[in-house]
User: Fold these one by one.
Assistant:
Number 1:
Amino acid sequence: MGLLDGKTVLVLGVANKFSIGWPVAQALHREGARLVLSYQGDRVERGVRQLAATLPETLVYSCDVGDDGQIDALFAAIAKDAGGIDAVVHSIAYAPTEALDGRYVDTEREAFRVTLEVSAYSFTAVLKRAAPVMAARGGGAAVTLTYLGGERVVPHYNVMGVAKAALEMSVRYLAADLGEDNIRVNAISAGPISTASARAIKGFLEMVHHVGGSAPLRRGITQAEVADTAVYLLSDLARAVTGETLHVDAGYHVMGVV
């Protein structure tokens, strides 16, 4: 018996095997969930479909979360092919590369807009469509991925830190809005993990080494640890947990001067 037997889970943001969303999807499947994966752009479609083929009964759809029409089409396809969903994993973030260098004060208006829209508002836009579906099935759960840069200044994280702060506050408002329908909303604040997007941040490898040497557990974290936390938050083990940002960072977030 898996912790998610009989559940259908939408995982947004898998681009390749290095995406944090992929080990999350694998862990959910291991626990009995049927998966729906979404991807953005023809460039990654083949790779995502190849990954999905390794997890039986997984459905795959294209969706640009910056387009409300595509989000609506995604949920129409899910309703037709899967009958609905019980949970959502939001693993999407984007900022123009130039906005992650230099000073935050120099962020251009368009870079700010697109970063906040894709990295923060997309979670709200998806749950606006997902909530009625989950409520009709007796409730559900949603998890998004964030980072300590939404709480504290992290060099070169810049506008993405502002977006993560907005995302974390959105989690609390969404939890308050959707709790009456037995829908739980939480975030995982993961420690630095080497992904294609993370490596775009200047000094990322130095950050990984610093966190690993300074965290209470004196190590970094793995994608599998984030994935197992997502399983917990989406399962009945966390049935009374909502509105939380749960740190999975070997304890680094508790440290002051390090």
Note: The two ends are 43 Å apart (CA to CA).
Number 2:
Amino acid sequence: MKMELVMVENLVPGNHLLRKIDKVIDFSFINEICKPYYCENNGRPAIEPEILFRMLFIGYLYGIRSERRLVEEVQVNVAYRWFLGYDLEDKIPDVSVIWQNRLRRFNGTDIPQQIFDNIVRQAMKYGLVGGKVLYSDSTHLKANANKKKFTEREVQKETQDYIKDLNKAINEDRALHGKKPLKFNGDEQKEIDEEEKENYFDDDGDAGSGSVTGETKRIKESTTDPESGFMHRDGKPKGFFYLDHRTVDAKANIITDVYVTPGNVNDVKPYIGRLKAQIEKFKFEVEKVGLDAGYNVSNICRQLHDLGIQAAMGKRRGVQQKGKYGKYKFVYLKEWDVYICPERNYLEYVTTNRNGYREYKCKNHRCATCPRREQCLTKKQKTKSLSRHVWEDFKDEAYVFTHTEEGKKIYARRKETVERSFADSKELFGLRYCKMRGLSKVAEQCLLTAAAQNMKKIAMCCG
């Protein structure tokens, strides 16, 4: 048997990722924020929370999904031991330590959020966050639940948080056009979400004037993970999922916000709230945002305008019948408040309905003799009609900016910022699906994954 005297410090290469992270990231804050959850004078000494979370970060950094396997890897990997401050013969914490801390000590706390926020602030100190241009998107994460095990139940439809502003805008628009104001039943009035308009479209693919029927909707609820949501979007897999809503700063691709919702929550719902939370928390002075077409709805554009933020976003064409003219074929003249069809005929204002849409129609005799009637109207239609949201001017404003040279550059960078961030988290950091159940535990996974991504970015830039 040969005996050798070695130092763990000398066994870790100088350019190792963990060495770079240890050099640039200050982990001492973890013990401080976790201090209220530990008893100082009762029971045997606990493993320091800094070591516990360092261990978890190793798992995220190297895509080790199983915590049991993580313990096994730490036992045999010298670099992992060095990062945790353990010598070659020191005993590694058992996997039950991780589980019990999560279930008992940190359950229901915001420790993962605090850790993520602190890493963002450290990135800001290194000058890696500009806070001027932000990119946001969401990605679906497969829930740890069988899609065939569910129950169906009726749930109350949620009232949109901007409904009072919309009702006010509707009556202001009606007054502007000489129409009588509508009476609304307080906050119970519902608006047709622009993401769900296909259920209320006229034959030409544009929003009709019908009102929302019913106050409840039927949903599928998983019996394995009831907090997940059943997703059935076009082009997406069906099943129970969570959504990771993420914001990335344009300067160095540092992730500045992570927010998790069930998979059946629309992308636009938490967006403005999360944007305002970042501005308040990190004192960002946001000037521009880059978003995909899913966020291109009137209310989002209105609120971004009110915040003084310009948006570069994709264009939504909506639903239209195959072979028929869509709304994009018609030109809106704001100064005359009319639409002009490809045959240079006017679609004139008729009314503003209680769902927030102005209705425009063409005179019957114009459509009856139109040479493009077959491409424009369905068999049931006698005249062409279009709808325009009372806040659609804000969408037009975003459309104009998106097509400027600056807007094109901002929108083009989506693929190398937020989309790249999601790709890395899934391919390199093990965030392809949820390893735990429940909204808070999935949020922990997403927040710590994003924190690990930020650590790696800081280390590569400053280490």
Note: The longest strand covers residues 239-249.
Number 3:
Amino acid sequence: MSKNEALEASYQNPLIGHGYDALSWLIYSPLGGRETLRREALDAVGVAAGQRVLELGCGSGGLTRRLVERGARVTSVDWSGPMLRLARTRAPAATFVRSELTAFVPAETFDLVLFAFVLHELEPGERAAALRVARAAIGPGSRLAVVDHAEPARGAVARGVFKLMVGFEPRSMSAWARGGFDDELGAAGFAVETSTSLARGTARVVTARVLVA
């Protein structure tokens, strides 16, 4: 079985959603907590009631639920059937679509397109394809937001947690987190507007708009 086949098989494991939830809770507990990270990320993005949000890579729906609670109209996309089943129980008001991210074709534009802890799992070519999907879904005046891992500049606990994550995340995560998001977002036609550190520097959220030629 190839690495990609193994990864695909893990996405369809019936327990993947619960395993992901347990692991994320464990990782962020010494860094202020997973719920604090989610709240601060959405605060930084400025999610508001009535916004049309496309969430590319919703996973088990933890962030989806917070988006719905803030009054957003959410469409969430993920390739994992087990993840989507769990997400539906957490955010029944959202619309869910099962699709591989780079194959998703938006039928409309959105006020906000969000990637949360998903782009680091993709190789550079796949990330570029996913960002093209995001760009196609962004209307005039709309924004992109990316929440993902980052390498902390200081703090023994934070740096220790980052090293732990590098050990079990896909190999693509290390270069993405250490290199930052800005260059790849720029190559995809986005201009970064804001960047906010989260979870003691082990994550960050950036917002960006489409570059106008």
Note: The longest strand covers residues 138-149.
Number 4:
Amino acid sequence: MKKTFILEDLDCAHCAGLIEGEVQQLDQVESANLNFMTKRLVVDAPADAMADVKKQIVDIVKKREPDVTVKER
């Protein structure tokens, strides 16, 4: 299942790359792509794991960019 998240107020391209890399390494994530220009993170993971994946994404983003808000699209 693919899900898109908007990372509001993301303003660091380097941090975006780090976030993308960490999300890609999550066990339940099949693929993840973060477009810095559109601030969209597209994640492919099993539907039954998506709630847990979202929590982990929020934790990763807050660790790298505390002022960024993660919203589902």
Note: The chain has a mean pLDDT of 97.
